[in-house]
Write a structure and sequence with these properties.
- The chain has 156 residues and is of the alpha+beta class.
- It folds into 2 domains: 75 residues, Roll (Ubiquitin-like (UB roll)); 72 residues, [2Fe-2S]-binding domain (DNA polymerase, domain 1), CATH 1.10.150.
- The chain is built from 6 helices and 5 strands.
- A 5-stranded mixed beta sheet has the order 2-1-5-3-4.
Length: 156
Protein backbone atom coordinates (compact mmCIF):
# COMPACT_ATOMS: atom_id res chain seq x y z
CA UNK A 1 0.00 0.00 0.00
CA UNK A 2 1.28 3.45 -0.83
CA UNK A 3 0.81 6.08 1.84
CA UNK A 4 1.89 9.65 2.34
CA UNK A 5 2.39 11.23 5.72
CA UNK A 6 4.33 14.14 7.08
CA UNK A 7 6.91 13.06 9.65
CA UNK A 8 8.68 15.78 11.60
CA UNK A 9 7.74 18.31 8.95
CA UNK A 10 8.93 16.22 5.98
CA UNK A 11 6.55 14.60 3.50
CA UNK A 12 7.22 10.85 3.35
CA UNK A 13 5.90 8.59 0.60
CA UNK A 14 6.07 4.93 1.57
CA UNK A 15 5.10 1.60 0.09
CA UNK A 16 4.24 -0.50 3.14
CA UNK A 17 2.22 -3.41 4.43
CA UNK A 18 -0.98 -1.65 5.64
CA UNK A 19 -0.95 -3.70 8.84
CA UNK A 20 2.59 -2.71 9.84
CA UNK A 21 2.64 -0.72 13.04
CA UNK A 22 3.54 2.95 12.93
CA UNK A 23 6.19 2.13 15.54
CA UNK A 24 7.96 -0.31 13.22
CA UNK A 25 7.82 2.07 10.24
CA UNK A 26 9.28 4.90 12.33
CA UNK A 27 12.08 2.78 13.76
CA UNK A 28 12.93 0.40 10.91
CA UNK A 29 12.03 2.26 7.73
CA UNK A 30 12.65 5.87 8.78
CA UNK A 31 15.44 5.23 11.35
CA UNK A 32 13.68 7.32 14.00
CA UNK A 33 14.82 5.20 16.93
CA UNK A 34 13.93 7.66 19.67
CA UNK A 35 10.50 6.02 19.61
CA UNK A 36 10.91 2.89 21.77
CA UNK A 37 9.02 -0.36 22.05
CA UNK A 38 8.29 -1.14 25.67
CA UNK A 39 5.24 -3.30 26.20
CA UNK A 40 3.90 -3.47 22.64
CA UNK A 41 0.38 -3.24 24.09
CA UNK A 42 -0.20 0.50 24.51
CA UNK A 43 0.33 0.43 28.27
CA UNK A 44 3.73 2.05 28.86
CA UNK A 45 3.99 5.10 26.57
CA UNK A 46 7.58 4.41 25.46
CA UNK A 47 6.39 4.43 21.84
CA UNK A 48 4.55 7.75 22.08
CA UNK A 49 4.37 10.20 19.20
CA UNK A 50 1.99 12.98 18.26
CA UNK A 51 -0.34 12.13 15.39
CA UNK A 52 -2.28 15.11 14.08
CA UNK A 53 -1.48 16.82 17.38
CA UNK A 54 -2.75 14.00 19.60
CA UNK A 55 -0.56 11.80 21.79
CA UNK A 56 -0.73 8.20 20.52
CA UNK A 57 0.90 4.87 21.25
CA UNK A 58 2.52 4.03 17.92
CA UNK A 59 2.57 0.32 18.78
CA UNK A 60 -1.24 0.33 18.40
CA UNK A 61 -1.53 2.31 15.16
CA UNK A 62 -1.62 0.40 11.86
CA UNK A 63 0.33 2.41 9.28
CA UNK A 64 -2.73 2.44 6.97
CA UNK A 65 -4.39 4.82 9.47
CA UNK A 66 -1.53 7.29 9.01
CA UNK A 67 -2.15 8.13 5.37
CA UNK A 68 -2.40 11.92 5.19
CA UNK A 69 -1.40 12.35 8.83
CA UNK A 70 1.15 14.57 10.47
CA UNK A 71 3.46 12.68 12.84
CA UNK A 72 5.82 14.31 15.34
CA UNK A 73 8.44 12.13 17.01
CA UNK A 74 10.98 12.99 19.69
CA UNK A 75 13.53 13.72 16.95
CA UNK A 76 11.24 16.33 15.40
CA UNK A 77 10.38 17.88 18.74
CA UNK A 78 14.03 17.95 19.83
CA UNK A 79 14.92 20.23 16.92
CA UNK A 80 12.40 22.88 18.02
CA UNK A 81 12.62 25.61 20.66
CA UNK A 82 9.91 23.85 22.71
CA UNK A 83 11.90 20.62 22.55
CA UNK A 84 15.00 22.47 23.69
CA UNK A 85 13.13 23.96 26.66
CA UNK A 86 11.69 20.57 27.62
CA UNK A 87 15.08 18.86 27.35
CA UNK A 88 16.81 21.49 29.46
CA UNK A 89 14.05 21.47 32.08
CA UNK A 90 14.10 17.67 32.34
CA UNK A 91 17.88 17.75 32.78
CA UNK A 92 17.77 20.54 35.36
CA UNK A 93 15.04 18.81 37.39
CA UNK A 94 16.84 15.42 37.19
CA UNK A 95 13.78 13.98 35.42
CA UNK A 96 15.83 11.34 33.61
CA UNK A 97 17.72 8.26 34.77
CA UNK A 98 17.94 5.38 32.31
CA UNK A 99 16.24 7.42 29.59
CA UNK A 100 14.08 4.65 28.13
CA UNK A 101 10.78 6.36 28.99
CA UNK A 102 12.08 9.89 28.40
CA UNK A 103 11.00 10.34 24.75
CA UNK A 104 7.44 9.31 25.63
CA UNK A 105 7.41 11.48 28.74
CA UNK A 106 8.70 14.50 26.81
CA UNK A 107 6.07 14.01 24.09
CA UNK A 108 3.37 13.63 26.76
CA UNK A 109 4.63 16.88 28.28
CA UNK A 110 4.52 18.58 24.87
CA UNK A 111 0.96 17.35 24.33
CA UNK A 112 -0.09 18.58 27.77
CA UNK A 113 1.60 21.98 27.44
CA UNK A 114 -0.03 22.56 24.05
CA UNK A 115 -3.44 22.21 25.72
CA UNK A 116 -2.58 23.63 29.14
CA UNK A 117 0.47 25.94 29.06
CA UNK A 118 0.49 26.42 32.84
CA UNK A 119 -0.65 23.10 34.29
CA UNK A 120 -0.97 22.36 37.98
CA UNK A 121 0.35 19.13 39.50
CA UNK A 122 -2.91 17.23 39.04
CA UNK A 123 -3.11 18.22 35.37
CA UNK A 124 0.48 17.06 34.87
CA UNK A 125 -0.25 13.73 36.53
CA UNK A 126 -3.27 13.27 34.26
CA UNK A 127 -1.19 14.29 31.23
CA UNK A 128 1.38 11.62 32.06
CA UNK A 129 -1.23 8.88 32.55
CA UNK A 130 -0.29 5.95 30.35
CA UNK A 131 3.45 6.67 30.53
CA UNK A 132 5.38 4.41 32.85
CA UNK A 133 8.75 5.22 34.40
CA UNK A 134 10.49 2.50 36.37
CA UNK A 135 13.61 4.45 37.42
CA UNK A 136 13.28 8.17 37.98
CA UNK A 137 10.07 8.55 39.90
CA UNK A 138 7.24 10.77 38.86
CA UNK A 139 7.92 13.66 41.24
CA UNK A 140 11.07 14.67 39.39
CA UNK A 141 9.30 14.31 36.03
CA UNK A 142 6.49 16.52 37.31
CA UNK A 143 9.12 19.03 38.48
CA UNK A 144 10.65 18.98 35.00
CA UNK A 145 7.32 19.71 33.33
CA UNK A 146 6.56 22.52 35.78
CA UNK A 147 10.00 23.99 35.10
CA UNK A 148 9.47 23.72 31.32
CA UNK A 149 6.13 25.53 31.67
CA UNK A 150 7.89 28.35 33.54
CA UNK A 151 10.92 28.58 31.22
CA UNK A 152 8.85 28.24 28.07
CA UNK A 153 6.24 30.80 29.04
CA UNK A 154 4.62 31.88 25.80
CA UNK A 155 5.95 28.99 23.68
CA UNK A 156 2.91 26.77 24.03
Amino acid sequence: MKIEMTVNGELRKLDVNPLSRLLDILRNDLSLTGTKEGCGEGECGACSALMNGLLVNTCLIPIAQCDGSEILTIEGLASSKRGEVLTEAFAEAHSVQCGFCTPGMVLAAESLLRKTPKPDEQQIREGLAGNICRCTGYDMIIDGIQLAAEKGDGLW
